[in-house]
Amino acid sequence: MRIRRSVTRVFAAMVLPAVCTAVAAYFGWHAIWGGRGVLALEDAQARLGVRQEQLAQIRDRRARLEHRIALLRPGHVDPDLVEELARRELMDGAPGEVSVPRKKP
Which of 34, 75, 81, 99 is the S-S candidate for 30 at Cβ 3.0 to 4.6 Å? Predict the structure, then answer.
């Protein structure tokens, strides 16, 4: 009878710490390796850096295109740009010039 009581007391005293340890381990694992843990955060930040670089390149390309479009607006046409476009499309050059066609990217 005495052994039974002492086993029951020890077991009862160990249940709460065991449950707390299990809960802490569960949340600790998810904090590091879970879908929104530290390792996933590093991966997301790396992907964000790549996307920001792509966005900067796209914005730069858009700014260059907007500038070229502004040079072709009616009433403010840049003659150098018109000549460049005509030469590219017609593959025609001035006397003594050689035109080499390029593959479009």
Answer: 34
Q: How far is CA 67 from CA 32, 79, 84, in A?
A: 48, 14, 15
Digitized pLDDT (tens) for each residue of the chain, 105 residues in all: 666 677 787 777 888 889 999 999 999 999 988 888 888 999 999 999 999 999 999 999 999 999 988 888 888 888 888 888 877 777 666 677 776 777 766
Q: Which domain holds residue 43?
A: 21-90
Whole-model pTM over 0.70: no
6 lies in some domain? no
Question: 30: closest CA among 22, 20, 19?
Answer: 22
